[in-house]
Write a structure and sequence with these properties.
The chain is an alpha+beta fold. The protein has a domain at about 60-165. It contains four helices and six strands. Strands 1-2-6-5-4-3 form a six-stranded mixed β-sheet, sandwiched between helices. One of its GO terms (molecular function) is transposase activity.
């Protein structure tokens, strides 16, 4: 079952979501749920808190986790994405004057490769690649965007696609 759980806390004036999220996790029942966050919250402490409460995390990864991002870039080189033998799932949508194809890739990761909390030895590296083109545009090449995620959930590529789309 997929659903959304929302929570809100009033922050101190000079606080931010990094300090609020651990407090919010304490208030919510995260057991068995996948908690998604933006890249700013891709922090080991937050992951540990979620895993400790029997939840799963799906975190966006960007430059704030430099070593982790380099691991992705090494494991999923752009020129080889079509040749990889990982679980993958793709969708194509036409709406709002655009056509977008999204490719979702999920790979197991050796625990020693990444120092991030895990659940029963499960850890996934996930990649979302989108190709977007304005339908009426004269530009022939679509705009490409590549996003990286790390998860403690035992995701398939299709479930990963749904999880980030519903974030």
């Amino acid at each position: 079952m997929v659903g959304v759980v929302l929570g809100q806390l009033k922050n101190a004036e000079k606080s931010n979501e990094i300090t609020a999220i651990p407090e919010l996790i304490n208030l919510l029942d995260v057991k068995g749920k996948i908690i998604t966050t933006n890249a700013m919250d891709c922090l080991k402490d937050i992951a540990e808190k979620i895993v400790f409460q029997d939840g799963y995390y799906l975190f966006a990864v960007k430059g704030n986790q430099g070593r982790l991002q380099k691991t992705f870039e090494g494991k999923f080189p752009l020129k080889e994405l079509n040749n990889l033998v990982y679980d993958s799932y793709s969708t194509t949508e036409k709406s709002h004057g655009r056509e977008e194809t999204r490719l979702h890739i999920v790979s197991n990761v050796p625990d020693k490769l990444i120092d991030f909390p895990l659940v029963e030895g499960r850890k996934k590296l996930c990649v979302a690649v989108s190709f977007r083109k304005e339908i009426a545009s004269q530009v022939k090449e679509p705009e490409m965007q590549m996003r990286y995620y790390i998860s403690s959930a035992n995701l398939t590529a299709e479930k990963f696609a749904r999880s980030i789309r519903e974030h």
